[in-house]
Each structure stands twice: as structure tokens, then as C-alpha cells.
Design a protein that fits this description.
0% strand, elongated, mainly alpha, 4 helices, 72% helix, 129 residues
Length: 129
């Protein structure tokens, strides 16, 4: 049996090797279709204007979707890298005085003793029925 990893999907094939070809292809097609549509409207080419006009909205939607997807991946990659750098820096620094792992704060030890005294005074030692 293989040991289970913490992630369900390995990041290598999905997170780092994302091709930007679909975005480039769809943006080129969208720009070309818009220019063809604009030219055919100005040149009184009615059939070509209708065909180019009908194909332009799906291409524009696909372009906006791929652009948002690419922007989201770039943001996720940059935040993943910065958080990984922060974790690595904190791990290499070790425990610091006055932070977690350096022992309890003086006030916490004093308050703990008062709480134990109060709870032992308030309890009669009998169980309620």
C-alpha cells in the first residue's frame, strides 16, 4: 500500500505546467473576428457581418473566461509561493523568546493558580443527582 499524501491532487501536472496557448489562440481569434466584423459593417458586406457578429459573443465570453482563469492561477501561484517562503523562514528561525514554545507567560501561570484555588473552594466534592 502507498502512504496517503496530504493533497488529493499532485500540484506538479496541474499547478505549474499550465499552457497559455488557449488564451493566446482565443484572444487572437476574438480580435480577428472583431476586426472582420467591424470591416464588414463599414464595407456593406451584410452576410459576412452577420456571421462575424454571431461568432463574436461566444469568442468574447471564452476570452474573458480564460483571462479570469489565468489571472486566478497567477494569484494562487504567487500567494502559494509567498506563504511557502514564510513557512520556511519561520521553520528555520526556531522558537523565539516570548512566543509559543518558549514557555508560559508569567501572567498565565499566576492566573492558573488563582483559578485552581477558586474552583477548589467553590466545589463541595459531592456529585449532583
Amino acid at each position: 500500500m502507498r502512504p496517503r499524501s496530504r493533497r488529493s491532487v499532485s500540484p506538479a501536472p496541474y499547478g505549474l505546467s499550465v499552457s497559455h496557448r488557449p488564451l493566446a489562440l482565443v484572444s487572437g481569434l476574438t480580435l480577428g473576428d472583431y476586426l472582420l466584423w467591424n470591416w464588414s459593417l463599414n464595407g456593406n458586406h451584410d452576410v459576412l457581418a452577420v456571421v462575424a457578429g454571431l461568432t463574436l459573443p461566444p469568442l468574447a465570453i471564452a476570452f474573458v473566461w480564460l483571462l479570469a482563469l489565468t489571472a486566478g492561477r497567477l494569484i494562487a501561484r504567487s500567494t502559494h509561493r509567498s506563504s511557502a517562503r514564510g513557512r520556511a523562514a519561520r521553520a528555520s528561525a526556531g522558537p523565539r523568546p516570548g512566543h509559543a514554545g518558549a514557555g508560559p507567560a508569567p501572567d498565565a501561570a499566576h492566573n492558573g493558580a488563582d483559578a485552581a484555588t477558586v474552583s477548589s473552594d467553590a466545589s463541595s466534592g459531592k456529585l449532583a443527582a
